[in-house]
Amino acid sequence: MLESRAVDDVAEVLRHEIARGVLAVGERLAPERQLALRFEVNRGTVRAALGRLEAEGLLSVRQGSGYLVRDFRRTGSLELLPSLVAGRSAKERLAIASDLLAVRRQLAALVLERLREVPSAALASVRRAIEDFELAAQSRDVARVAAADLDVLAALLAVTESPVLQLCASPVANVLAELPELRDAIYAEPQTNVMAYRALLAALELPRTKRPSADQLAVILAERDRVTLARLAER
Amino acid sequence: MLESRAVDDVAEVLRHEIARGVLAVGERLAPERQLALRFEVNRGTVRAALGRLEAEGLLSVRQGSGYLVRDFRRTGSLELLPSLVAGRSAKERLAIASDLLAVRRQLAALVLERLREVPSAALASVRRAIEDFELAAQSRDVARVAAADLDVLAALLAVTESPVLQLCASPVANVLAELPELRDAIYAEPQTNVMAYRALLAALELPRTKRPSADQLAVILAERDRVTLARLAER
DNA sequence: TCCCTCGATTGGTTCGACCAATCTGATGGT
DNA sequence: ACCATCAGATTGGTCGAACCAATCGAGGGA
Question: A35 and A63: one domain?
Fold first, then answer.
């Protein structure tokens, strides 16, 4: 199986402690040599883990002084949402899922704005990705469906040619796949997603002047998320 | 001065090469030992740099096989936008700035939606942050103004109590401060920002039933960004 | 032709040492 | 009593070498 590396284990534990507040903001971390004893790994391994957390914005470090816990709400990114979700109440997890889908819709609105201006021919790659998604949707393998959905998003984002939209949307999409509860709710009935994509594609392949407004397109995605949240709430 | 660490230098060079496409997606990186020779540092230092890039989603690694360049458009995040901006044409940089501000507005819309439902008393911390921002705005020190603006955002996000909004909005705000060109354009006339914040705060401190709609509030931010982009375009 | 095996390659971890920045507390002067 | 200063301890940063573990690939055998 996927034997995780020692460095990942150490980083995971510390990340979790920061996310849960066991290590308060501004607090000093134990020295590297001490952490090495605690986790029973070499100091170099501890350093690798701490380096990752620093890159994630969870720690700051000064030579001779030590590591300080930063305020992840100001310097963190979505990557650590999974650690943040662990141990929260069902109600809180539902609120998080709702917010996450809302953010996705807001970003999708920008993407759709741009796609409305693109010649239909440029959507060939999107059509292919959606057709692959339809195939995957029949497999009932949630992981495979989720992967195919990421491919659809990548195709859509590629057409926008906007690095900003790509770099903003990708983390949102990727974190969805790392929240099993939410991911299962999204793909519990993949046909819902297939229908939404078909509707979007049909609208965007119309002649440019006849395409629905961005608001009208957004309705399709809003309905999809509404279904997902209802499914999530009734558990 | 700020003597950067060797590990940061190595990571920066490799990050830049990936962002610029010198290292193509799917390509294998040179082995660690070889990179150590190239950069004239220890292999452990190279490993630390590669570990950061892996955490940033730029590389994948398999023991015995090596490092592969991932598609940062799918697995990266906003952190690497600065590397992506370097070397682009003025026109492209303007499009990036425009997109970035558009994303910020979309996220701000969600934040304002929630703030409209919050009792005025909860906005005391926001008022304090805005007053500090007004003081900083008089200093004409762009870095200080930008820092105070981040404090305002943090206060706004804290009121929402939404970890998702916090983790989504922070990277956007932080990357703005790392793009000098855009940052200078935003704060060239700080009074513009002060006026916008005052208007927002006044609107949100009204009795809940008398507050303007989220759309009306969004207009204030849109106007602010319009000014910024005009300033950026005329250079 | 296919498959297996074994050596070479490459990342993962450990150990030990030393350098550099910082912190702390004792010292000594005012 | 207060404070500046300095030396030693603490702590992160880098280095070098060694060995383990997963993978790859060329050569040989069925």
Answer: yes
How far does B103 lie from chain A, in Å, by closest CA?
Answer: 7
* Inside any domain, residue A45: yes
The SS3 assignment for B26 reads: coil
- Percent of chain A scored above 90 by pLDDT? 94
Proximity of residue B180 CB to strand C below 7 A? no
Measured CA A63 to C1' D6 distance, in angstroms = 21
Q: Rounded to a whole number, what is the distance in Å from the CA of B64 to chain A's nearest CA? A: 14
What gap in Å lies between CA B25 and CA B43, rounded to an integer?
A: 24
Distance CA A48, CA A57 (A): 15
**How far away is chain A from the Cα of B190, in angstroms, using its nearest Cα?**
22
CATH number of domain containing A14: 1.10.10.10
Chain B residues closer than 8 Å to A44 by CB? 44
Select from B56, B76, B96 the last residue of a domain.
Answer: B76
Model confidence at A1, pLDDT cuts 50, 70, 90, reads: very low
Question: Residues A41, A149: one domain?
Answer: no
pLDDT digits (tens, 9 = 90+) for A94-124: 999 999 999 999 999 999 999 999 999 999 9
From A5-14, A206-215, B72-81, the region with the lowest mean pLDDT: A206-215
Q: What's the per-residue H, E or C state across A66-132? A: EEEECCHHHHCCHHHHHHHHCCCCHHHHHHHHHHHHHHHHHHHHHHHHHHCCCCHHHHHHHHHHHHH
Q: Looking at the complex, does the CB of residue B94 fall below 8 Å from at least one CB of chain A?
A: no
Chain D nucleotides near the protein (CB, 7 A): 9-18, 21-24
Q: Which domain holds residue A106?
A: 79-233
How many Å from the CA of B211 to C1' of C8?
72
Q: How far apart are CA B135 and CA B191, in angstroms?
A: 11
- In-domain check, residue B1: no
Verify whether the Cβ–Cβ distance B52 to A55 is below 8 Å. yes
Q: What angle do CA A200, A201, A207 make, to 5 degrees?
A: 105
The pTM for the full model equals: 0.94
- The residue of chain B nearest to residue A61, with distances taken between CA atoms, is B5
Q: Which of B167, B178, B182 to mutate to test the interface with A (most CBs of A within 10 A)?
A: B167
Beta bridge partners of A28: A68
- Phi, psi angle pair for A40, to nearest 5°: 55, 45
- List the single residue in B44, B106, B163 with the smallest CB-CB distance to A44: B44
Domain boundary residue, one of A33, A59, A76: A76
